[in-house]
Prior knowledge:
- The complex is a heterodimer.
- Chain A contains 5 helices and no strands.
- Chain A is mainly alpha-helical.
- Chain A has one domain: Up-down Bundle (Four Helix Bundle (Hemerythrin (Met), subunit A)), CATH 1.20.120.
- The longest helix of chain A is centred in the first third of the chain and has 27 residues, at 21-47.
- The model of chain A has no long low-confidence stretch (mean pLDDT 94).
- Chain B is built from 13 helices and 10 strands.
- Chain B is of the alpha/beta class.
- Chain A binds chain B through residues 12, 15-18, 23, 27, 30-31, 34, 56, 59-64, 66-69, and chain B through 280-285, 287-288, 291-292, 295, 324, 326, 355, 376-381, 383.
Amino acid sequence: MKNSPQILNPKIMRDLIGNDPTLIAQFKQDFVSQARSSLRELATHYNNREFKGLKQGAHFLKTSAKAIGAEEVTDKLQQLEFAAIEQDMAQCKQLIIQLKNALQSLIEVINS
Amino acid sequence: MTRKPSVASRHPEVIMLYEKEEDISGAANIIAEQVDEYRTVPVTRLVGEQIKEHKPSVILFAMSTVKLSIELYTKLLKNQQIVHRHYAIVLCKNKESGLAFRSCIKGVFDNYFVYLPLYEKFRLKMIVHNGLRQSQGDDHYAGLDDDQLERIDTNLASLIELSSQCKRQLLDSVDSCKASMEQSTEQLPHGDEGMGHDKALVKSLAKQHIEPLLTQLEVEIKDGLDLILAQLTSRHSEIKDIKQKVQAKQKSRLPSQALVSSLFDEHDAKPPKKKILVVEDNQIYREMIVKVLEQDEYDTEQACDGLTALKMIKGNDYSLILMDLYMPHLDGINTTKQLKVHNDGKDIPVVALTSNNNRELIKRWAQVGLKGYILKPSNRTEILQAVKTAIEYG
């Protein structure tokens, strides 16, 4: 059975770039900035009913979310990508809200 | 107004020696924008004579390898086809920048510039500008160039010769004057008592007044001209010293066989790091991959999309390309399709950076030359293993 996604799985980044705490902290902060900017773009695509842009935006952010171990954010982005392919407006809206919450939780964990 | 670049000046101050015209077109036009008296010259059997004739202040060597540029420069120096003061620049491909740097540090060339790929056009202009300034206004020789030195040397030599001749002629004239006076006095007729007195008087006048004057004139001519000659000889000797120093300086430019060998020995002693191009639009993930590779002794370069990657491939020697599938401008599959064309027909192994739900696309990608794939997110060990395998078997 698949484990439920963690807000932040520290093992993922450790296994990738090693144990340097400064480097890890830097990549986490870089991701937070990137995610905030991407979330704004995703909302714009949603408001303009641009499903292709939504799909591409979700896919783009998913790459770095996976790499830093932000599993919950990754999961929401994956679902958003599928919803955009299906052109399901209602589902996209729900997922963008959930993505925003997942990102907020991640920021709290990072800053704790 | 824009000046039309010219690369065939009749009296070039700057010359670029090249092997392949297509390699130098970018760099050649940049220099032509800056220098009026400029010429590009293909390397043929006549190249040495052309250099000897034009005596360019700046010479750029743009052969296909640094080694060939060193060989050409050494040959021109050895054959005395470059004996004038000049500034030598080696143009190199990015992969040979280390070797070009070492050849400058060891004094073979004065400077180097990476022209394939061509990024820093203003740096190239700066190097050529500095080269012109240094070779044309070298204050070691009080602002004199080789031709001026040669002229001064020749003029001083002829001045010394003229002064010596002049001294001989003046002293001969004094001697002949003395002889003539003695002869004239002796030839005065012996006659009666009155005439005898006159002769005695003339002799006495000659002895007491004219001879001392002639002797004094002789001494003054000797002293004066000897002083001038000594000064001229001394200046001539200084000029000769300067000329010898200039020649020695030019001679010292000829790199010894041992020095040239040492450049390549060092190069061979430590094998160059394999260079990997990481093509990924997500900057965070791209930098993470770069960290992983650099910690494992790979050199890396980065591109944010397929189009940028294709531009970077020319003139580089990547051992491997790690490439994302979905990217703006040109995706991974289409970039891979065009790689060979942009790499002079040579293959470069490509490993995909991809999510596991792209298996169908991976199959399509494999048909256009993909050598392996790394699932996102893989760990360090998996990434390095995939890289190693692709480089070894790619």
